[in-house]
Amino acid sequence: SFRAVVFSGIAGWCYLTWLVYKESNPGKQIPQSEFKESGNKKKNIVILGSGWGAISFLKDLDTTQYNVTIVSPRNYFLFTPLLPSVPSGTINIKSICDSVRTIACQNTGEVKYLEAAATDIDPVKKTVSIQHKNQRFLIGDAFTADRVPIETTLDYDYLVYAVGATVNTFNIPGVYEHASFLKEANDATAVRQKIFNQIEASRLLPKDSDDRKRLLSFVVCGGGPTGVELAAEIKDYIYQDLSKFIPGIENEMSVTLIEAQHNVLSMFHPRLIEYTKDVFKQQGLNLKVDTMVKKIDDNNVYATYRHPDGKTEDVVIPYGTLVWAGGNKQRDITTKLSSKIIEQSTARRGLLVDDYFKLDGDENIYAIGDCTFTTNPPTAQVAHQQGSFLANHFNKQAKIDDLKYLISNSTDPNEIAKFNKRLERTLKIDKPFEYVHQGALAYIGSERAVADLTWGDWSTVALGGTMTFFFWRTAYVTMLLGIRNKIFVVSDWLKVGIFGRDCSSNE
Ligand code: FAD
Ligand code: NAI
């Protein structure tokens, strides 16, 4: 009835307002201290990173039980699934970033944050060396100059290692020098600025010039989900918005996606791969599969195309803007850490951990997310579940430690028996990690998305199309960690729906 609708509307608004109020007005935190209420000594946890793994761990950790310090060169959490929507201007970068301090304030126990990168770990002394890149801001100027970095060392009882991975260039000549990436917030804004720089430059050249054509060529290398989503977003942008402000640009500007394997989105159902290829064809997006990039210079991508009969052919693809999305590799700090632990000597693709994410060969370091090598893929979904699991494991471990402490410090046999019973129960519920795959989603352009959805062990559904696009949007809004980000993202989509994306290079 009408009354019920009005009532639920009001209740919904009240709930939303309360959530916003709670997020922006966190309560006073309990300060860090040497001892817990039980009298037991508090242990120090140092968390490295502020990405999916680290933040999910922090959110679920009972920070009254430990003294927690989070160290990351990035003072915000970045919601990577919507990063490919930033260069096209569909999403404002601020809408998908959430400050580490805002997140840390939601915990009951105080959490310290240090903006620094870990440079070395000593597993024997249980210390981590960290470095803050000290920059001097030149007044009235956007430029910064590096000063001598500030360095210090932190002691830990437990180190939660969640530094993620970096981009793999496979040492292909020219990638570092000429390509952009799509890994961090500033990568996305840099790609947008590059596109506009090339568009504006091309306007000064004659229509039939090869250089103009090259400047208007947008090339993405790597047909994994990052490359596919970015190419699709840029193609949408050209057709749906740029064409209104720069008439004819849709016929001049090209988007090319280069993939070494026979298929893009290889982790998706074959039907969805074919569907993606069809959508790309309709959109006029140049998809070059079986094409392995070998070299990149200032103006061209050099690749080898493998014909169906196995013969190869050299191809040259001119570009104005180039993005490399060739996948992940370990960070140098991770390689350095694994070289210090004998049990990690075979860890080529990531740190080796047990079912509780404890590093093989070390009792005090735990690793989660893209820096590990497990049976699970390097995704946000995995890092999020691992972080949450590890926090609960630490929460239980705190209880276990307290009960052991109380048992050893008590003289009353009844109390000891009671604590022993509780200890037995707590030990029983500490089960190893099991990943629950909920499916994979990707945006493929023209308001269409693909989804491989899984419900437990019994059902997998492969969907593609406009309804899937709405599902994709709903799922991502749900996944966004803070209420503030949810509101910003929805309003970005509304703004684009009403006014279209803007066509200036600023973010
Ligand atoms: P990250 O989230 O990368 O976090 C690593 C953190 O460590 C960062 O805060 C970094 O600043 C910090 N750090 C780096 N070096 C140091 C150091 N030396 N010391 C201290 N801290 C350090 N996955 C999905 O499941 N669904 C998606 O839709 C999806 N979309 C994606 C889109 C893009 C464009 C990209 C790039 C990835 C996407 N992913 C997606 C993958 C997902 O983002 C990663 O799997 C996930 O971020 C891994 O989490 P993590 O915590 O291991 O690392
Ligand atoms: P990826 O590893 O999934 O894909 C990289 C692609 O680049 C591969 O298909 C590879 O064949 C290709 N490639 C590598 N070298 C090449 C060369 N020389 N020439 C041509 N092609 C080359 O990397 P991506 O897309 O960055 O994803 C990284 C991780 O993040 C994955 O685990 C992915 O599942 C996850 N992710 C998930 C998303 C989603 O679910 N929507 C979105 C983005 C990332």
Automatic annotation (TrEMBL):
Residue ranges occupied by any FAD/NAD(P)-binding domain in the UniProt entry:
44-387
> One GO cellular component from the entry?
mitochondrion
One Pfam entry for this protein is: Pyr_redox_2
Give the molecular function GO annotations.
Answer: NADH dehydrogenase (quinone) (non-electrogenic) activity
Give the main EC class.
oxidoreductase
Q: What is its EC number?
A: 1.6.5.9
> Which keywords does the record carry?
FAD, Flavoprotein, NAD, Oxidoreductase, Transit peptide
Q: Which reaction does it catalyse?
A: a ubiquinone + NADH + H(+) = a ubiquinol + NAD(+); a quinone + NADH + H(+) = a quinol + NAD(+)
Looking at the record, the residues that make up the External alternative NADH-ubiquinone oxidoreductase-like C-terminal domain are: 437-502
SUPFAM superfamilies of this UniProt entry?
Answer: FAD/NAD(P)-binding domain
Q: Which family does it belong to?
A: Belongs to the NADH dehydrogenase family.
Name the record gives this protein: NADH:ubiquinone reductase (non-electrogenic)
